[in-house]
Fold this protein.
Amino acid sequence: MGEGFDEIIREQDADFEASGLKAASVIRLGRMAVVEGKMLVGATGEIDAERLERLKSNLANWLRGKKE
């Protein structure tokens, strides 16, 4: 996994408040897991559409073996 694969969400980012995070955090695409909803405590937040598309593109490219 190369540079740009993980992404930091900082307090000053436009989507930080909607994310529900309490502090700057890293989205670790290489550490993703599937969990049942009942295992989650509390509400999950949202990230903006641009960030989501960038992350999905990075993940798809990595799965296909492409480096950008």
